[in-house]
Automatic annotation (TrEMBL):
Pfam families assigned: PS_Dcarbxylase (PF02666)
Taxonomic lineage: Archaea, Methanobacteriati, Methanobacteriota, Stenosarchaea group, Halobacteria
GO biological process, one term: phospholipid biosynthetic process
GO molecular function: phosphatidylserine decarboxylase activity
EC number: 4.1.1.65
PANTHER family given in the database record: ARCHAETIDYLSERINE DECARBOXYLASE PROENZYME-RELATED (PTHR35809:SF1)
Protein name per UniProt: Phosphatidylserine decarboxylase
Keywords assigned: Cell membrane, Decarboxylase, Lipid biosynthesis, Lipid metabolism, Lyase, Membrane, Phospholipid biosynthesis, Phospholipid metabolism, Pyruvate, Zymogen
Organism expressing this protein natively: Haloplanus rallus
Broad enzyme group: lyase
């Protein structure tokens, strides 16, 4: 099973503790082992099969935001602790900028999460925002300015519970949306918007 970077850093301490605790307190050892197993599961990074057309979801989870901003549509996906937290490129394009914006750490499912710490990845076709939640304090982009990405490519991950948004290109309107708030989506596979002219 492929794991996202950082899995060893978070999983090794409880797994090592489980070995030591096995001789002192089996119940605590079992707890530490379960915690290590949860961390490994959390950092899983399964392969995905992107569709040939459309804007795909940047994250696994449920659509928590669909709104208009300055004439463009934003679709946000809330990830809970059981979802895969590796983020995917919504469309093919070149990374024009990578901007870290410090902020609060409100629950990622709340309206206040718009003010949370985030990293905005601007492609030449759209923008993807990696937004930290109340517990997630580590955003790990995988891409850099000038790099070309293909729809569904891995572009980063967020450690432990968070949100990922895609700001659609200006040409898209509500008639092009294929998802609504509450819908479950899969990163790199679920098409969230599609136009006849999409490649």
């Amino acid at each position: 099973m492929r794991l996202a970077p950082g899995a060893r850093r978070y999983a090794l301490p409880p797994l090592v503790a489980a070995v030591a605790l096995a001789f002192v307190s089996p119940p605590l050892a079992a707890l530490a082992l379960a915690l290590g197993g949860f961390v490994v599961h959390f950092f899983r990074d399964p392969d995905r099969s992107p569709p040939p057309r459309g804007v795909v979801a940047p994250a696994d989870g449920r659509v928590s935001v669909v709104r208009e901003e300055d004439g463009r549509l934003r679709v946000g996906v809330f990830m809970n602790v059981t979802d895969v937290h590796v983020l995917r490129a919504p469309r093919t394009g070149v990374v024009e900028s990578l901007t870290h914006r410090p902020g609060a750490h409100r629950p990622a499912f709340s309206k206040d999460s718009d003010r949370n710490e985030r990293v905005d990845v601007t492609l030449d076709t759209c923008e993807c925002s990696m937004i930290a939640g109340w517990f997630a304090r580590r955003i790990h982009p995988y891409v850099s300015t000038g790099e070309e990405v293909t729809r569904g490519d891995r572009i980063g991950h967020i450690a432990f519970g968070s949100r990922a948004d895609v700001l659609l290109p200006p040409a898209y309107d509500r008639g092009d949306l294929l998802v609504a708030e509450g819908d479950a989506v899969r990163a790199g596979e679920t098409v969230v918007a599609l136009r006849a002219a999409d490649d």
